[in-house]
Amino acid sequence: MEDNKLGSLRKVLADEANENQAKILQGFFKTGKGEYGEGDVFWGIKVPVQRMIVRGFYDLEFGDVKKLLESKIHEERFCALLILMKKYEQGDADMRKNIFDFYIRNSKKINNWDLVDVSAPKILGYHLLNKDRGALYELAKSDNLWQRRIAIIATLAFIRKNDFGDTLKIAEILLFDEHDLMHKAVGWMLREVGKRDLAAEEIFLLKYHKKMPRTMLRYAIERFDKKERESYLVK
Q1: Whose CA is closest to 148, among 107, 209, 204?
Q2: Which of 230, 181, 183 is nearest to 211 (CA)?
Q3: Cα 115 versus chain centre, distance
Q4: What is the gyration radius of the CA atoms in the chain, in angstroms?
Q5: What are all long-range contacts of 167-173, with beta carbons under 8 Å and residues at least 24 apart?
Q6: CB–CB of 119/81 below 8 Å?
Q7: pTM reported for the whole predicted model
Q8: Cβ–Cβ contacts within 10 Å for residue 130, how many?
Q9: Is residue 150 a contact partner of residue 128, using CB atoms and an 8 Å limit?
Q10: Using one digit for the tens of pLDDT, what is the confidence trace for 179-217?
């Protein structure tokens, strides 16, 4: 029998289910056969509502958070990550290390782009600000799409501290990734680098713009003026 607190959270989420919104999200997050989110099940609960709901459940036991992350329901996994982020923020060094290790072990369950994007910088990225970052390079070389996305998106935490080296190195590893979601992710992180150090982004682009996928390049140069964008897009 599951913990009453976990049962209460699941009931609150189920009560907020919206069938029409769920159908929209099932399409938006590509849950059909052969698509990147195949098999993901949505209840149709908007993110601000989920954020409001979990405020009453930040004290959920760690084991119950794990049960949520193992759920087939997208919103339950999203809420698990919101709770983990709060526990990480409030935890001591041991708790933070445990959450980091748990995140790595369960990274294949963080299996849609919104789950990655909301959590990777605030848990993995933040944890590795002053530590060895080898774990990200292992993830970047994974056969799993979501682990690769985690690797590059986690570096947003470094970018925000004006530390760009690992972002650019991991971008090189992922330069020829076959998945469109990775093209977008890498291009986005390059754009974030450029917001803080345009020269660093341009050095990377001058070396690779003729080789990188068009989507990646378009995301990277989105903030450039029209003339600059056109110059990069000409092969």
Answers
A1: 107
A2: 183
A3: 5
A4: 19
A5: 167/192, 167/193, 168/193, 168/200, 168/204, 169/137, 170/136, 170/137, 170/140, 171/204, 172/208, 173/137, 173/140, 173/141
A6: yes
A7: 0.95
A8: 7
A9: no
A10: 999 999 999 999 999 999 999 999 999 999 999 999 999
